[in-house]
Design a protein that fits this description.
The complex is a heterodimer of chains A (449) and B (478).
Chain A (H helix, E strand, L loop, with lengths): L1 H17 L4 E17 L2 E19 L2 E7 L4 H17 L25 H4 L3 H17 L5 E19 L4 E19 L2 E4 L2 E5 L7 H14 L9 E7 L1 H10 L7 H5 L20 E4 L20 E6 L2 E2 L6 H7 L7 E2 L8 E2 L4 E3 L6 H8 L2 E6 L10 E5 L2 E6 L2 E5 L3 E6 H6 L1 E4 L4 E2 L4 E2 L2 E10 L1
Parallel strand pairs in A: 8-15
Antiparallel strand pairs in A: 1-2, 1-4, 2-3, 4-5, 5-6, 5-7, 8-23, 9-10, 9-14, 10-11, 12-13, 15-17, 16-19, 17-18, 19-23, 20-23, 21-22
Helix pairs in contact in A: 1-2, 4-5
Chain B lengths: L17 H15 L3 E17 L2 E19 L2 E7 L4 H19 L14 E3 L13 H17 L4 E19 L4 E19 L2 E10 L10 H4 L1 H12 L3 E2 L3 E7 L1 H13 L6 H4 L19 E3 L22 E5 L2 E2 L6 H7 L7 E2 L8 E2 L3 E4 L6 H8 L2 E5 L3 E5 L4 E13 L2 E14 H4 L3 E4 L4 E9 L2 E9 L2 E8 L3
Parallel strand pairs in B: 4-6, 8-19, 9-16, 15-22
Antiparallel strand pairs in B: 1-2, 1-5, 2-3, 5-6, 6-7, 9-23, 10-11, 10-15, 11-12, 13-14, 16-18, 17-18, 18-19, 20-23, 21-22
Helix pairs in contact in B: 1-2, 3-5
Chain lengths: 449, 478
């Protein structure tokens, strides 16, 4: 498979050069995704998707055009190259773009990206995993009126990148997750929650653990009430940290957003922008990390980048364009969702350094406040204002969790939030967007009604 | 018989019709043992041009072509996709998907059949200026013009970003019930995002125009002045303040009202929630969910709108859906499966992002029907509250009944008059409570283009309505 991807990428680069590109780059993705879905506590559907496509970036006189096609057929790739070239020729050149990246350094060793058991999983084994997560969720809800949605999904992806400057790399990785989301009804009240485990290795997924946790959680969410608002401490559990810091801060240290003045972080390198408690690393080399890879989406070798060290902003996240523009080292954070996208910038493994204590310990310590387990909200990236609904959360008082919350929002500016991280827990989780424990914000505006 | 001229570029395919390709997969699936099978063959070309601060940041041309295949037996579904659009390739894919459905069959609990009417049609979409006939230079020049407008509006403009996008889709849908439908879609969109800066105060504004039509839809005054509009809003936002959190009487503008209808209600009406038991509206069909003056509709048949289509992605003819009539929940958004299982009539709401996804019930153009108040009466009569306008984003969890959405800006209502401008105002609420709090609906009407995400699939849509007032809603503050 690796040869097919690199061959297609090389073909695209050569074709682009022969049709007039000064520089060209091709990104090929070949993937297989297998999933099984559960509805109302029983299996309902299975899907197997095989996808292979190629994205081509062409440079003509400093102008850039990009095109992709959902096949690896020579004719289709040639058509994509032609389209990319015609777009490049009519583009307004960006004076800050100088060149595609070339090879620097040596290929890092990143272990645990590929798991044969996951790549070769058959429908019977996948069915067994999803059945186990449903059964264990149901076991925790015996005697209740419930409906479980669940899913197991495994993904194998081969990536190849080639360009005119000698980049010529490929790798293969796997990842998968098992997910359960029960909805329960008790005395006319209805609520639901979700939990999951995500890993690059099949044997790291523990369906029973997910089922047990999620059943306990959904029961604890009955009886949601609003509270008297005010200024209160907020405990963000890992899922919420992953949204608010992983996305909401991860995107603010995206060098492109900073360069264009669209980030609430600017001119702050070397400044103490966060509390001493907070150290955050973007580590693309982490063994078995869901976001690990030997090279980024432009084929630049991966690295470990300290973003925040004890509250001090150490580095932004760069790709080749932003690093050339700022004249700094490329942190190899170019990313693409698939061959369909141009490289942008994103975190690899966003790791918040853990300290100690569980959520229960933090509740004890802070006495009164709210816990935000999950939210769908991200800050306004320009102002940093965050108004986040507590999608799942609890009110605690006198060191005890009192009741779940409804219609409750947290308001705080991200610059304040970063400064007010007074505690970092030890309950580390791998979420879909970060590796992080819970953190405590000393105070935020809580509105409820 | 529709010739597969859309598959130009692969000469061997020219002689084979899409109908033949689809039939090869369907017949193969039935032969293996499926009781229902369907196929979507898609050919989509699109362009995205992004200008920022006067230079081209992104110029993307794409070509999506392939087939999505589903097989069904006794309540078990399987899905697969292929880009091998040959008779052999389709046959292999059909067999493989059917085998997966059969392997899943023993595990399903609820057994049911897929029924529905069969449609045969070939609908061409007429546009004045087809995207393929408009040169890249002209598209680039248009994006550049909008970007320049925003940059030149005011010295406080710190960053401009303009995104032009177009996509042309040819879709053929066939199934084992006899459906064979070909439709076309043409969606242009222009977006302007402007950041204004004054000292350390930075504000960002967003404006967009998106319709169903050809490039001519970008020649309207609204589209042609979009950069100016977004720059004006960004500059105005510099003098806004963060709202103080609390419980308010809120007047929503048509765009925000549309977001509320979409997030707080539309998603909960998607009928896949019923067999899954994941909506708080489960027991409410035929029952009161709001006041008598409240009517909510979803209508994919309105001409020229971004959420409109003649047939859905299962090949079912679309029609207007009356979700709420006189305060009563009357209709749901159906796929063939949900209509079959609930014993209701399919109404053409199954949509997929592309051939790579399974179609599921989705909204199209969703709105609150106008009432009889004027906007001026609403503000004056409210006395103290907040007018909220446009939106940044919103989301919901129908199984919990909780939703939230965020207005881009608004104005305090003081003594029946509009006062201080506020920004980024978030509202949270409960699906089952919020509609009963809508106590006044104006007679004006407007729809806004959007893209709605569900289960990882984005589909183009619109939402809107008139100005309307909601009493006692928690508004988040800083």
């Amino acid at each position: 498979m690796s040869e097919r991807g690199l061959e297609a990428a090389e073909f695209a680069v050569k074709r682009a050069e022969s049709l007039g590109a000064d520089q060209a780059e091709a990104y090929v993705g070949i993937s297989r995704t297998f999933s099984i879905d559960v509805e109302n506590s029983a299996i309902k559907s299975a899907a197997e998707k095989r996808d292979a496509g190629c994205g081509v970036r062409c440079v003509v006189a400093g102008r850039v055009g990009f095109a992709y096609v959902t096949t690896l057929d020579d004719n289709d790739i040639t058509q994509a190259v032609t389209n990319a070239l015609s777009l490049a020729r009519v583009s307004v050149p960006d004076p800050d773009f100088s060149t595609l990246p070339s090879v620097t350094g040596s290929s890092p060793r990143v272990n645990g990206l590929y798991d044969r058991a996951m790549a070769e999983i058959d429908s019977e084994s996948a069915t067994e995993i999803v059945t186990r997560v449903v059964d264990s969720t149901a076991a925790g809800l015996e005697g209740r009126d419930f409906a479980i949605e669940a899913q197991v999904k495994v993904h194998t992806r081969h990536v190849a990148v080639a360009n005119s400057l000698g980049i010529h790399h490929s790798y293969e990785g796997t990842f998968g997750y098992v997910y359960s989301s029960p909805t329960i009804k008790v005395d006319g009240e209805q609520t639901s929650t979700f939990d999951y485990e995500i890993s690059r290795r099949l044997n790291r997924l523990n369906p029973e653990a997910v089922g047990k946790r999620v059943a306990e959680m959904v029961l604890s969410m009955l009886g949601a009430r609003s509270i008297e608002g005010g200024t209160l401490p907020v405990i963000l559990e890992p899922e919420a940290v992953s949204v608010i810091l992983g996305s909401g801060f991860g995107a603010a240290v995206n060098a492109e957003e900073v360069q264009f003045g669209r980030s609430y972080i600017s001119d702050a390198l070397g400044d103490e922008i966060a509390s001493l408690e907070l150290t955050i690393v973007d580590d693309a080399l982490l063994e078995g990390g869901v976001g690990s890879r030997p090279f980024d989406a432009e084929g630049v070798f991966s690295q470990r980048t300290v973003i925040l060290e004890k509250g001090v902003l150490k580095s932004l996240l760069h790709n080749s364009y932003t690093s050339q523009k700022d004249g700094v080292e490329n942190t190899a954070n170019a990313s693409r969702g698939s061959y369909m996208n141009l490289p942008s910038i994103s975190t690899s493994n966003f790791v918040v350094r853990s300290e100690r204590g569980s959520v229960d310990d933090l509740v004890q310590e802070f006495g009164r406040g709210v816990i935000c387990r999950d939210t769908g909200d991200r800050p306004n990236m320009t102002t940093g204002d965050l108004s986040a609904m507590i999608m799942e959360g609890f009110y605690f008082e006198n060191g005890d969790i009192k009741h779940p919350l409804k219609n409750t929002l947290i308001g705080i500016n991200m610059r304040d939030l970063l400064k007010r991280v007074v505690r970092v827990g030890g309950d580390v989780r791998q979420t879909s967007g970060a590796i992080t424990p819970s953190i405590v914000i000393e105070s935020a505006t809580v509105t409820s009604g | 018989m529709f010739k597969a001229v859309i598959l130009a570029g692969n000469a061997a395919l020219m002689a084979i019709s899409m109908e033949n390709l689809a039939q090869a997969a369907i017949e193969a699936a039935l032969r293996v043992g499926a009781t229902f099978a369907d196929v979507r063959i898609e050919n989509t070309t699109s362009t995205i041009i992004e200008m920022s601060d006067g230079v081209t940041r992104r110029a993307v041309s794409s070509h999506l072509k392939g087939a999505g295949i589903r097989a069904f037996v006794d309540g078990a579904w399987a899905f697969g996709q292929t880009t091998d659009l040959t008779l052999k390739g389709m046959q292999v894919a059909g067999e493989s998907v059917a085998r997966l459905a059969l392997a899943t069959r023993s595990k399903v609990r609820e057994r049911f059949d897929i029924n529905g009417p069969a449609f045969r049609d070939h609908v061409k979409l007429t546009v004045k200026r087809h995207f393929h006939d408009v040169g890249m230079e002209e598209k680039m020049a248009f994006a550049k013009q909008i970007d320049s407008q925003a940059r030149e509006y005011d010295s406080r403009i710190a960053n401009t970003r303009t995104v032009y996008g177009d996509s042309w889709t040819e879709l053929y849908v066939a199934n084992s019930l006899g459906t064979s439908v070909y439709i076309e879609n043409s969606l242009p969109r222009i977006i302007s995002v402007t950041t204004a800066k004054e000292g350390s105060n930075r504000q960002r504004a967003f404006k967009s125009v998106g319709v169903r039509g050809g490039f001519e839809a970008m020649e309207t005054d609204e589209a042609q002045t979009l950069g100016t509009q977004s720059a004006e809003l960004a500059v105005n936002l510099l003098s806004s303040v963060a709202a103080k959190g609390g419980v308010y009487d809120v007047v929503m503008d048509p765009v925000l009202n549309g977001v509320m209808v979409h997030e707080a209600f539309g998603h909960a009406c998607e009928a896949d929630n019923w067999p899954a038991h994941t909506t708080v509206l489960e027991d409410r069909v035929g029952k009161e969910v709001g006041p008598e003056h409240l009517n909510i509709s979803d209508d994919p048949t309105l001409p020229g709108l971004r959420g409109s289509f003649e047939y859905d992605w299962e090949g079912t003819r679309t029609r207007k859906r009356y979700l709420v009539r006189k305060g009563v929940l009357t209709e749901l958004l159906h796929s063939l499966e949900t209509a079959s299982r609930l014993g209701m009539e399919p109404n053409g709401a199954a949509r997929a992002q592309s051939f790579m996804y399974m179609p599921i019930p989705r909204m199209s153009n969703t709105f609150m029907e106008p009432g009889d108040w004027t906007f001026e009466e609403l503000i004056e009569e409210t006395r103290h509250g907040i007018l909220l306008c446009k939106f940044n984003y919103g989301y919901t969890d129908p199984s919990k009944g909780q939703f939230m959405f965020q207005a881009s800006h608004g104005y305090l209502i003081e003594n029946g008059e509009l006062g201080q401008m506020v920004r980024d105002v978030s509202l949270a609420g409960q699906i089952l409570e919020v509609l009963s709090k809508v106590d006044a609906v104006a007679s004006d009407f407007e729809l806004e283009a959007g893209t709605c995400g569900k289960n990882g699939q984005g589909v183009p849509d619109m939402s809107g309505g008139p100005h309307a007032r909601v009493r006692d809603i928690p508004v988040g503050g800083m």
